[in-house]
Amino acid sequence: MKAIKMYEAGDKMINLIRDNYNILQSLSAFGIPLGFGDKTVEETCASNHVDTTTFLAVVNFTINGATATDVESLSAATLLHYLEACHRYYLDYQLPFVRRQLAESINTSDEVERLILKLYDDYAREIRRHMHYEERMLFPYVERLMQGEASTNYSIELFSKQHADADKSLKELKNLIIKYLPADSNNSNKLTSALYLIYNNEQWLTNHQEVEDSIFVPVITRMEQNLKQERLSSAISAFANVEAENSAEAISDREKDVIRSVVQGMSNKEIAEHLCISVNTVITHRRNIARKLQIHSSAGLTIYAIVNGLVSLELLEK
Question: What's the predicted TM-score (pTM) here?
């Protein structure tokens, strides 16, 4: 039965462990050693450079199945470190440890029992393949994403589609041992111990996959969305700046003279006389100005002239 308490930053870490000893491995994966005394969760996390909100999200999800409502507040770096450490624990310690326990509890001269051991080895290879894929593809992708680098050939959605259950072989192995593997009295305790470890492995792997699917994937999805939005905003801003620069550069000195004359209220004839050019030339200049600036009114030209320093308000008020 799941606990109903939702743990908070002010709770003492020792109480959390007393209530839920099965999260001891999670502490190690977060890089939190034992010996934290009566420190709170927040104090313990801070002293070990672990994001408290992310730690509590994983713990409360593991214990109560509670998913974080605000993924923006979670640390992708902390989650990535946690998952990498979980891989090392399972691949480097747990898999070989259970294999040794199982090998010691069966009779390798018996064909059925040898097949049981082979099934475990097949399972171990599949788990290694699955986790090595994540280490080769997913984790480096997330690291690049945290540095603001987008990928064109990989995404968290692609990972999710390929993230199939990796514990089916373990369930089959457990059932075969229970149903078909007789053990003599000398090996009964060893076999029971190995079977207990297999049950623990099954639960651990389920929790690990659920943390990936329910916490890690949403966090990375939001990172992807934020990066896309930032890049889109930057692109729009850059485009607007380029357009503004191009527009300003496209206006010639003579066209600026025409703009100054227009905003001072001169007619085409008066502008022609003032600039010593023909009326037709004035009309051509005004047509080109309207095309370049996409401004077709005297009021619009006045605003443009003031903003770009072609005229002063004092001059217009005279």
Answer: 0.71
The residues near 286 (Cβ < 8 Å, ≥ 6 apart) are 258, 262, 268
Instruction: Using CA atoms of 140, 206, 130, 144 in order, give the dihedral in degrees to the nearest 10.
Output: -10
| First-last CA distance in the chain | 85
What would the pLDDT profile of 218-272 be if each residue is shown by its tens digit? 999 999 988 888 877 776 565 556 555 555 557 888 998 998 899 888 999 999 9
Of residues 227, 238, 237, the one with CA closest to residue 150: 227
CA pair distance 106, 184, nearest whole angstrom: 9
Distances (CA, A) of 96 to 23, 114, 125, 160, 178: 21, 17, 11, 28, 21
- Render pLDDT for 73-113 as a digit per residue (tens, 0 to 9): 999 999 999 999 999 999 999 999 999 988 888 877 777 78
Q: Give CA–CA dist 41/12, Å, rounded.
A: 6
Q: In the block, which residue shows the tokens 């007619």? A: 267
Phi, psi of 264 (to 5 degrees): -85, 5
Nearest CA to 261 among 304, 307, 302? 302
Spatial contact of 107 and 244, defined as CB atoms under 8 Å apart: no
